[in-house]
Structures are given as C-alpha cells and as structure tokens.
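Technical note accompanying the year-one report. For the benefit of new consortium partners, we illustrate the data format agreed upon in the data management plan: each record pairs a sequence with a structure-token string. No post-processing was applied to the example shown here.
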Amino acid sequence: MKKWIWLMLLVLMAVAVVGSRGSTFFEQRPSPAIVERTPVETSQPQPELQEVDNTLQVSADKLLNHIQKLNFQRYTTQERSLTRTYITTELTKLGWKPKLEKFSDGVNIFAERPGTNKAAKAILVGAHYDTVASSPGADDNASGIAVLLEVARLLGSRPTPRTLQLAFFDQEEIGLLGSQAFVSKTARLQNLGGAIVMDMVGYACYTPGCQKYPAGLPVTPPSDKGDFLAVVGDTEHLPLLNAFQNSQNVPSIALNKEESNLPAVLTLPIPFKGLLTPDTLRSDHAPFWYQGVGAVLVTDTANLRTPHYHQPSDVPATIERSFFTGAAQIVVNATTALLEKTEVLETQPPN
C-alpha cells in the first residue's frame, strides 16, 4: 500500500504544477498591431545568488534581444516562415548547419553538433516557435527559442562526449504536430538518449498567492509565489530530472567569475507516461515519451502563473528579466552536465 500512496502523491504533485494548455484549434484572425516595447527588470525580491562557470554564462542581453526580434504573431504560414529565417540565420552565424524538415502541416528546424564519443547517445534540446493567433508569444514561446539559441551559442563549439542536437518545432499550438512528425522518423531516435523541451520559461510573479494550484493538493507547495522553474519528466528516465536538481551546483572553474540569480527548481517525476495526468502531456515532450525516449518539460507553469497566456499581452515587456536569465542558465547547466557524461539515462533498479 505504501508504494501506491507515494505514487498518488507523485501524480497529485504533477497536476499541481503543470497547467493545461489552451484549446488546440484556433480560428485564424488578422495579425494585431504589436508595438515594440523594451523589457524592464522588475524590482521584486531576487533569488539567492549562485556562482556559475563564466565560460558558459548566458547573456541576458542576447536572450532579450531574441525576444524583441521575435515580437510578432507567429501563426500564419508567412509569419512562421519569417521566424524560420530568423532562427536559421542566427544558427548559421554561430557555425551551425540548420536543416529544414518539412511535414504535412509545417516545417521543423534541426541542427546537430557531433560528440567525441560515437557510442554515447545524443542529447536533444528543443522548443516550439509557433504561436496562437493574435499573440506575439514572448513567453509562449519566444522565451524557449531564445534559450535554445543561447545553448547553440555556448555549446556549439564545446567538445563533449555526447552529441548535441537542436530542434525548433512547428505547429505545437494546434496539437504537437511538429514534434510528432519529428519522432515519426524512428531511425533518428536510436541514438537519442534524452530530450529537453522548453515551453514558456520567462515569466515569474512575486506577489504571495500569484501561483495557482489545483484545489485539495495534499502537499506543501514550494512557494506561495510564482518564482520557481518546473521540470516535468517521466519516471523511466530519472537521471534527466536529476541533472536539473543538480543544475545549481555546477562548479565555477573560470578565472573571471560572475554571479547569476538562479530560481528554485521543482522536479516532478510522472509515472505511466502521463496516462493518469493528461495535463502533463500538452507540450512537445509528450511524443518522445510515447516513443520510449526520456524527455523533460521545462516550464514556468504557463496559465497557472501568467495572466498573459495566449493573449495579445504576451509581449517582451512582461518577461521577468532576472527569472528568465536564471532559467536559461539552469537549462545550460543541466544540458552541459548531460553532454559531459556517458552514463545511461534510464532509471536503474536499486542495488
């Protein structure tokens, strides 16, 4: 009985943090007039300072610049084409060779940097680039695109045992179509050890009670504020989640050290591939789960926190600079740790 009690607690924790996505079908509407705004840093209490390796320090300016450049609705065919042009241009500048992978309803972008150990399985980092109609999607999901481009900048020329793969998924908002098309190529999954998928990583709120939770949660929430990063993973691949649990403890080895604000991380192991918690399946990590590939979703909890979810108000000015930069650093730290190791990422039975 004790095992079932713990299982149900895990299920309830998953429901508490990862909110459900909106409707998967949207009526196409004319693009709204979106005014360029300069992101501002809020004067809210900041998380505890942590030191990170200066050689892998994310740039807040670069992150926010990407979001400014993508400050337009990315819903129509033409808008998504413009987005692909921006992404592929940035990747090419960084020395990558991006490939466009067409499927029936859209186009994914894929790039790869080989590792030094051919026997070590690859790590993929991904994010969707489309939006719903009438929203510029600064948080959903220009924030994920920006972090993915920072991963490309910082790790593109860094030798690691594992291969690093990047994927920018199309048409997530209408039913995870891009990621489903991506995993349908089963041959590419044979050497894929795990995937990190980002979907909304740029919004935080510091007013007590601003973070929503389902009623009747029998556990103590990590905070009464929306100031933590949630990482949702399948129980079959717990080493992926462990990389994020340890993401704030990366030793600083550079001569010139910088300090970075890193938010708290809440890791949520989900059993049975989310069958008991369908709300945890509404982003691009889910198709990987159903192909037997370990994957984690990194998120600010979407509509459980931000009032701008799928709204015209999801603009660069609503991104919380300190939280966003810290979330990006956590992703870079965890990705680096996974790339440096060659151990299997499947959950091992206890000794």
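Partners are asked to follow this layout when depositing records. Residues 1-52, 250-259 have pLDDT under 50 and may be disordered.
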